[in-house]
Design goal:
This protein is mostly helical and 420 residues long. It folds into 2 domains: 242 residues, no CATH class; 162 residues, no CATH class. It is built from 16 helices and no strands. Helix 5 packs antiparallel against helix 7 and helix 12 packs parallel to helix 15.
Length: 420
């Protein structure tokens, strides 16, 4: 090989190594951030609760498996759950500044994106295999089970995760909407997994070939296309925001951004009495208004209530439902405390000519109303589902009062430290 060809080859290898090194640096930074917040989330009390809840759910699951209803299509339920898991996002860790500083390096970014896809695929494959293993007792206790069919369904799911990631990346170059990409991957996986579970395992072959062919065609059409930096940056920002919102349900995330939108329907919940418009209640009013117009805090609370209702209905066991409900009451109180941290350190509490102590007083007034309302809703749901054991709902209120007191004490302690 001539020296000039060796030189070009070595230059390309060096650029590829730099791209992989850049991705690894950003991946490690993200992992360190998650590990940092995990120290606050998985404290002793929370780990003990998760252990109890997991054991209770597994006990309930084993009891359900022994008494399966012949009128429910469990194969379809398993297929839908596994097909949803094949929809995999690609964490590229692309930053807004990359569209400027990496523009000249764009032709050598393939190694960067391949590293991102490999990482995303491996993480999702591990989750998929674990969930598939959990479904084994349910599948083989249902009617018309097939060992070969289940193995082929798992194989197809793993293959579809890999193919789906390639399809998503190539379709992003073509500016195709993300929800359409996810729908295509879901339908391809669902059709093959369900037919395999039904005893037709060889149906996965045409689906795999179709997926490979689709990747080939998309690759041919995108060979001359460059990276759509704006779409890639927006996509990564959405994934980062989703990650931060999940973490923010349990602990405060630095730099968490929130958007607001007026919801006129909810304005009826704002204080109307003139006596409320004074120094003693001004921050209570502002906390309530900002909460009702928040794009994250409001919907997180609503989602937690809906999760509580669905899970308590599914488990069909009063003790387990009580534990799940108590945990979600605990999570709601913690989420409310995160809302305080987002709002109290903004500019308006700092500049208004009122005592600083009124900020915390207003938050306590707001917190009591919100937490009592949500706890009552969860307790009512529990009492409707389990009327013979409605007295268990008292646990929700006891835990709510205990958690609310601890949260307010920690906030007061932090405020005093900041003053010093």
């Amino acid at each position: 090989m001539p020296h000039w060809m060796k030189f070009i080859f070595m230059q390309q290898v060096m650029r590829m190594n730099k791209a992989v090194q850049l991705f690894n640096q950003r991946r490690e930074k993200n992992q360190k951030e998650i590990a940092y917040y995990s120290k606050f989330i998985f404290n002793g009390h929370f780990v003990v609760f998760l252990s109890i809840a997991f054991g209770a759910l597994m006990l309930q699951y084993s009891q359900m498996v022994k008494h399966l209803s012949p009128h429910i299509n469990y194969h379809l339920i398993i297929a839908v759950a596994l097909a949803v898991l094949t929809i995999t996002n690609i964490r590229t860790f692309i930053r807004p500044a990359d569209q400027i500083f990496l523009l000249n390096f764009e032709l050598h970014m393939d190694a960067y994106f391949k590293s991102a896809m490999i990482r995303s695929a491996l993480i999702r494959i591990v989750i998929f295999v674990i969930v598939a293993a959990l479904f084994i007792p349910l599948y083989f206790n249902a009617a018309d089970s097939s060992m070969i069919g289940y193995i082929c369904a798992v194989i197809l799911g793993i293959v579809m995760i890999v193919i789906g990631i390639w399809i998503r990346f190539l379709m992003m170059k073509l500016d195709i909407e993300q929800h359409l990409i996810s729908l295509l991957i879901f339908l391809m996986a669902l059709s093959g997994i369900y037919t395999s579970l039904e005893g037709l395992p060889f149906t996965i072959i045409p689906i795999i070939f179709f997926g490979i062919g689709l990747v080939y065609l998309l690759n041919k059409h995108t060979q001359q296309r460059t990276v759509n930096w704006h779409a890639m940056i927006d996509y990564e920002e959405r994934l980062t925001h989703q990650q931060n919102k999940t973490i923010n349900m349990f602990t405060d995330v630095k730099g968490m951004k929130d958007t607001v939108k007026r919801r006129r329907v909810l304005d009826v919940l704002l204080p109307k009495h003139k006596s409320k418009y004074n120094q003693q209640h001004m921050f209570e009013f502002l906390f309530i208004r900002n909460f009702l117009r928040s794009s994250d805090a409001l919907w997180i609370i609503i989602r937690l209530i809906l999760i509580a209702a669905v899970v308590m209905w599914i488990v069909n066991q009063e003790i387990i439902a009580m534990i799940i409900g108590a945990f979600l009451v605990y999570a709601i109180v913690l989420q409310t405390s995160q809302f305080y941290k987002q709002q109290a350190f903004q500019l308006w509490p700092q500049v208004w000519p009122v005592p600083e102590s009124l900020v915390l007083t207003g938050f306590k007034q707001f917190m009591r109303k919100l937490v009592w309302l949500t706890t009552i809703i969860i307790a009512v749901i529990y009492m409707i589902l389990y009327p013979a054991h409605l007295y268990y709902a008292a646990v929700f209120f006891l835990l709510m009062l205990w958690t609310m007191r601890n949260v307010t004490e920690k906030i007061e302690k932090r405020m005093n430290l900041l003053k010093d």
